[in-house]
Automatic annotation (TrEMBL), chains A, B, C, D, E, F:
A Pfam family matched in the record: DUF34_NIF3
InterPro entries (UniProt xref): DUF34/NIF3, DUF34/NIF3_sf
Species the sequence originates in: Nesterenkonia flava
Similarity section: Belongs to the GTP cyclohydrolase I type 2/NIF3 family.
Subunit composition and interactions: Homohexamer.
UniProt name for this protein: GTP cyclohydrolase 1 type 2 homolog
Gene3D superfamilies given in the database record: NIF3 (NGG1p interacting factor 3)-like
Keyword Metal-binding in annotation: yes
Signal peptide (from-to): none
NCBIfam families per UniProt: YbgI_SA1388
Stretches of the chain forming a coiled coil according to its record: none
Length: 282, 282, 282, 282, 282, 282
C-alpha cells in the first residue's frame, strides 16, 4: 500500500529533478520554511509565494508549497508579521505548511521552464542560449530552436498569446506583423540579459518578459531599422506558469515510482500584478 | 530685426530652464555633439536619440536636436559608425546638427516632465515625491497631488490613456476598477525606485512606466490585499513625450524674449519600441 | 482594572526605554518574530535566543521573549527548521511567542548594560568611553568612572567575580595583583574595539569580555611593562546578564505606569558556552 | 671543525623546514630585521616578539630570534621607538639580533605546530582539517585524528591541561564531562574559522584557542543540545609554544647535518597575557 | 589593375599585423572614428591623435589616420567640439577621415614598437621583458637582448641619441659614463612598470621614457650604489615614433600583396610636448 | 648657557613650523626612526632619505636627519637590511641617528616648499593653487602669483634655471620662447594633478616637475594651439631642495629662540637620479 513520504524524502526527489547546483550564484533556492521530519501528503505548486497563494495552499491543507520565485532572495534580519514576507512565514508555520523554491534551477534544468516553453511552441533542435556553468550541454538559461515551418510574426505572436494563460496585458510585439519568422529564442521570466545572446544566435524573434524601454529600444536599434530579432514581450507570470503542470506531473510520477502516494496540485491563482488594460484597439 | 543665436547662446538659455545642477549624480546631461559657435536657426525636440529621430531632424535641417534620453549615458571609447551610437554621431556631425540632453534635470525642474504631467492631469497642490538634493522645494523627482474631484480607478485610467500619445501597449492597471481615487502620485519614465515613496505619501494611485513583475508584485503585496496605491503602468516614451511641447514652447519664448528668431519643432515619431499587442479583449 | 497590552503597545514602550536610533549601524534590533496585534501578558528576558532559552520561554507560556543578542544579525534567505535559527523561529511561531532584540541600543542607553555595570561596581562620575553618534552625552558604548576608594587589582577582581553570575571560566586578570586601581573602564560584551579608548581615558583597569591573545597582548605591550590599564576579562554572557533584572524592572514599571498588567521574568539559564575549566590552582 | 653560518645560510635551511609558500596569503613571514651577512652562533625561539622576549634574547647574546607571531603583520610607515613595535626594532638592531617569523607556514608544515600537537596527544591517522592550497596532502591548517583508545571528555581535557605549559587561565571545556571522546580535531592558535570543518569531519571534540562567545555559542547550537564536537578552549600561547622545542631541535639537527655549530634555545617566558584567574572552584 | 580597399578590408589586415588580442586589458584599441564601407586610398601614421596631426592628415586628404596613442582611453559621455577630443572627432568626421588605434597591441606584436627599437639598436637574441598573457613567446612588453660588442654607457647613450628623432629634451642618463654595457633592456613609451623586470633580467642598462623622480630614484637605490641597470630616459614620443616607418611599410606591403593600391605616409610632426631646454652644458 | 634639546623637544618645534595636520591624507609624515629621549645636537636636512644621504648624515654625526620625502610612504612588513629601505633603517639605528619626514605638510605650510619658490621667483600676491582642506587660506598645494614685470618665456625659463641647483637635465619648456609671461603658477615636486588648476587660475606659465608625455600633451592640447599656460618642467629634486636652506634656518631660529644650541646643516648631495644628458644643442 502506498506510503506518505516525509519532507526530507520529497526534498531528495526534488533535488534529482531540479538540482540546486544548476541555480545561478546570486539565487536562493531550496527549503525556506518547514520541518524535514513532517509527513507530506499534499503538495501545491505556484509561481509566486504571495499572500493569496499561501492562503489558498493553507486552506487546501497543503503540507508543502513549491514556488518558482524565492520569498527571501535578499537576506532578512526579521520575519515579524508586520512585513508581508514575515506574514507569509507566520501563516505557513502556523498552518504546518513548508515552502520550497525552485527558481533558476527550475529554469535551467532539462524539463524546466525554458524546455517546457520550447516544447509547447514546437521548437526543434532547441539548445540553451547560455549554457549552465556546471551542468550538461542541454542545461542552461533560455532556449533557441527552429519552428518546423516558418510563419509571419503576427501569426506567431497570436500562437504565443493563445498558448499562455490569459493575463490582462496580453503580449506586446516589436517588429513587422508580416515578417517571416522561423528561428525562435526564448527566456521565461525577465530575459533582458540575454538580448545580445538572442541576436548573436541568429534568432528571428525573441520571446521574454519584463522588457523595459531602454533595453528594448537599444536592442531594436542594434538590430538595425526593421531588423531581427523581433521582440515578443509576455507576462512574467504567464511565461513561468507554463512550467507548473509539467513540474507537478514530473514530481508526481517520481513520487509514485518510489511507492509514495501524494496529492499534487497547481494553483489556479493569477499572480500577474495587472488587473486590466486600456489599449488603442479597444 | 530678429537675430539667429549661436549654439553657446542657446545652451545658456537651456541652462536657465533646466539647470544641469538638478541632474542626478549618475546622469550625463548637456551638449553631446556640436560646435558652440555655429548658428542655430532650427531646433528639434524628441524623447530618444535613435536613428529614425536623427534622420528626421537632419532631413528637416535642424541645427540642434534636444532629447530627453542621453545617447552616451555610459562612457564610450569609440564612436565608429559600426555601432548604432557611433552611426548617430557620424550622421549628426556630417549634417552639422548638434545634440543636447536634458534628462533628469528635465524631470526635476519646475516646468519639467513631472510638472507637465501633474498639470495635464489637473493635480492640485502638487509637490515632488523626492526632493532634489540641491534645489528649490518644488524641484525633484516625481510628483504627488490631489484631483479636484475623486473618481473611480477605471475612469481615471481612461483619462490617463486619453491624454497620453497613443502607443500599442496602452496602459496597464493594477487595482479595482471601481475603487475611489483622488490622491495621485506620478513619475514620468521608469519610476520603480519611488514605489515606496508613493505609498508613504498616501497616494491612492501611482502612475509610472516600465514596472516589472517583481517590483509591481512586491508593491501590491506591501499595500495589502486590494490596498493602495493602485498602479497605472504607462509607456515610458509616452509619459516623457508629454513634456516636449511644453519644453519647446518654453524655449521658444525664452529665445524670443531675448530677440532671437528660431524655429522650434517637436518630433512626431513614436519611439515606443512596441508595434502591436494582442490582448484578451481583442 | 489593569489591562493586557498588545505587542504594538509593548514595542512603543521598549522604544522609549532603549531607542532603536541608539543601535550601531551594523546592528539588527527590534521585533524579529511575532504579530503586533496579539496580547502580551507574559514577558521573558534573556541574553541569548538559543534553543534552551526559547524552550524555557515557550514552556512558561511567554508571549514575548526579549533578548540582548540578535537571532539574525546577518540576513538569512531561509528559516527552515533544519538550521538552528530556523528551528528557533518555528518553535516561537508555533508557540505564539514573539521575539524582540535590544542589543547595542540596550548597551548604549541610559540604564543600559554599561550603566548597570557601572552602577553595580559603584563607579562615580561615569561617562561613555565612546559617545553615541546621535544621542545624549550620557549615551554611548562603554563607561569610564572612578571608585569612591582605591583598592588593589586583586581585591577589585574578586569584587567583580563576586558580583557577576557564576560561570565556569570565572574572570581572568592581566596585571599585578597588588597594584592600586581606582579609575575603571568597562564594556559589557566583547570590548576589544575600546582597548585604546580605555587607555587614552586614563583607566587603571579595563573590564570587558572575549579578549583574544593578540588584542590583549598588544594592549599590554602598548601599556608598557607592568603598565596600565590592567585587564579583567569576564564572561560575555555574565557581563550582559547583569542588565536583565534592571531592564525587566524598568519595563515592568513603565507598563504599570500606563495601567498595564504584565508578568515579567528573567531567564535563569546560563548560556555561557563553557561547562567546566581546569586551572593550575585546582 | 664546526663552522658558524651566516644569516643567509640559516634562512635557506629555515626555508626547507617551513617553506614560505605554505603561508596563508594574508600572512607576513620571513626575515623582519637583520643583516644577511652576519654570523649566527646563537638562535632563540619564542611565540611572541614582545619586549620581554626580545630583552631575554638580546641579553642572552642571541644573533637571531625566531618567533611564531609576526611583529609587522600589517604594514607600518614608521618604526620610531615610541611605538612598542618600533622599540622592539630599535632594541634588536642596536643589539645586532635578527628577527625571523615562521607563522602559518610553521602551522601547516609537516612537523609544524599542528603536527606536534597531534603527535603529543597521540592521535593516529591524523590529516589536515583544511588542506594547504599548494602543498602536500599532509600539509595544511588544523589536524583531525583518532585516539588509540576512547576516554571521557573530562579525562581528555585533564590530559590536554597536563601537556600544555601552565598558564593562569587553564583550559575551558564545553560539553558533558562524562561523554565519550575518541575522534579529535585541533588547531593551534585561534581556530574559530575551522569550527565547521571540525564538525563536518566528525570530531568528538575540537581543541583550539581564543574562542569568543558567539562562535562558541553558535557552534554548540549547531551541534544540537549536548551534541558533538565538544570544545576545549586552550591558551593561544600555550598551544603554539608546544611547537618550539620540536622546531628548535629540527633546526639544530639540520644545521649540524651541514656541519654548522649553532647554539639553539627556547624562551622560557610565558607570554600568555593573563596573570591570574578567579574561578568558582577556588 | 590595383584596387582601392574599403576600411573594413584595411581593418582586417591591421588585425593580422597587430592583433587586438595582444592589447593589455586596460587598453582601448581598434577603430575609433569612421565608416567601414568607405574607400581608403590614403593612410597616415602618427604617434598622437592631437590637433596638429589631425589637421595635417585631413589637409593631406587622408582617409585613415592610424595612431599609436588612443584618443579615448577612458570612456567619454560627450564628444562636443568644445573639448579637444570632441574637436578632433568633429574634424575627422567632417573631413571623412577615420581614426584607428594600435597601442599596446602595437607594442607587443612581432614587428611592433619594441621589436623595432631592439632591431635598430642591434640587439641579438632579444626576447620580451614581460611575456604576453595570450600570445606567442616572442610577443609581449619590453625587450631584453645583447649588443654584439660591449661599449661604454656614454657611447651607447650617444648612439641612442643619434638614432632617435631629435627632440628638445634629448636623452637623460643615470650611471657612470665610462661603465661597460652590453646587455640592454628597453621599453618604448612609459616603462616604469618594468624597472624591476629589467633588473631581474640582468640588464646593464634600461632604456625607456617618462621616468619620474621616485621610480628612478628607487630603481637606482635598489641597484645599489653605482649599480646596474643604468637608466636611459628618452622622449616618449621619439621612442614610439621609431615604429611608424616600419609599421607603415608593413601595412603598405600587406596591402600590395593583396593587390590594393594605397598611399601610406608617416607624419613628420614632432608631438613631443617640449619646445626647448636649458641645461648646464649650454 | 645654551642647552641641548632632546628629540621630543625638537619634534614639538617642527610641529609648530610644519604641522602634521597640513599633510595630505595619503601621506606619511613625522618621526620614522629614533628614540624621543635622545639628545639632538646636530640636525641634517635633505630631500631624499637615500643611502648616500644617510651615509653623509651618519658620518657627520647627525642625531637627526630631516627629509622631505618619506622613507616608508607605503607600509612595510619587514625592515631587513637586504631591502634598501631596511638597510637605511639599520644604518640609522646603528648610528643613533633619527629620521623625520616633512613632506606635504612641508609643501603646504607658510614658509614651505611652494612659498619659498614663489618668494625666490619674486611673485607678488601669491596664493595657493589648491587650498588646504583644514588650514589657513595661505596654506595649501602650489602657488599662483604675478611677476612685478612681465618678460618673455625664454628669459623667465633662464631665470628659473639660474635659481635652481644645477642638475644634469636642466629645465624643459613647452611654449613660444618669445611669448610674454607675467602670471606664474608653480608646484614643487610632481604637480601634474594641478595642471587644470593652473589653467583655471589664468597662469601664463606653470612650473613643476615630473611631467610625463600624456599629462603634458593633454595640457597643451587643452590650452589650444600655442595657448597658455606654458609649461616649465624642472627637476623634482631641485624644486624641493630650494626649501632646505629656508627650512634649516627657520628651525635653527626657533631652537635658538627657546635657548637651545643645535648645529643645523643642509646636505650638499644631488639626489636627482640623472647623471648626464645628451641634447641636440650640444
Amino acid at each position: 500500500m502506498a506510503e506518505t513520504p516525509d519532507l526530507e524524502t520529497v526534498l531528495s526527489i526534488v533535488e534529482e529533478l531540479w538540482p540546486a547546483s544548476l541555480a545561478e550564484s546570486w539565487d536562493a533556492v531550496g527549503l525556506v520554511v518547514g520541518r524535514r521530519d513532517r509527513p507530506v501528503s499534499t503538495i501545491h505548486f505556484a509561481v509566486d509565494p504571495v499572500s493569496a497563494v499561501v492562503e489558498e495552499a493553507c486552506d487546501a491543507g497543503a503540507d508543502l508549497l513549491i514556488t518558482h520565485h524565492p520569498l527571501l532572495l535578499r537576506g532578512v534580519t526579521t520575519v515579524e508579521a508586520g512585513t508581508f514576507k514575515g506574514e507569509v512565514i507566520h501563516r505557513l508555520i502556523e498552518s504546518g505548511c513548508a515552502l520550497l523554491t525552485a527558481h533558476t534551477n527550475g529554469d535551467s534544468a532539462v524539463g524546466g521552464v525554458n524546455d517546457v516553453l520550447a516544447e509547447i511552441l514546437g521548437l526543434e533542435d532547441s539548445a540553451p542560449l547560455q549554457a549552465a556553468e556546471s551542468g550538461l550541454p542541454e542545461e542552461g538559461l533560455g532556449r533557441i530552436g527552429t519552428l518546423p515551418a516558418g510563419t509571419t510574426l503576427g501569426e506567431f505572436a497570436a500562437k504565443v498569446f493563445g498558448i499562455l494563460p490569459a493575463v490582462a496585458g496580453g503580449v506586446r510585439v516589436a517588429g513587422d506583423r508580416d515578417a517571416f519568422v522561423q528561428r525562435v529564442a526564448l527566456c521565461g521570466g525577465a530575459g533582458d540579459s540575454l538580448l545580445a545572446a538572442a541576436r548573436e544566435a541568429g534568432a528571428d524573434v525573441y520571446i521574454t518578459a519584463d522588457l523595459r524601454h531602454h533595453p528594448a529600444s537599444e536592442a531594436r536599434e542594434a538590430a538595425g531599422v526593421g531588423g531581427r530579432p523581433f521582440l515578443i514581450d509576455v507576462s512574467h507570470f504567464a511565461s513561468e506558469w507554463m512550467w507548473l503542470p509539467a513540474a507537478a506531473q514530473a514530481l508526481d510520477r517520481a513520487l509514485a515510482d518510489r511507492g509514495y502516494d501524494v496529492s499534487v496540485a497547481v494553483s489556479g491563482i493569477n499572480t500577474d500584478p495587472w488587473d486590466f488594460v486600456i489599449t488603442p484597439g479597444r
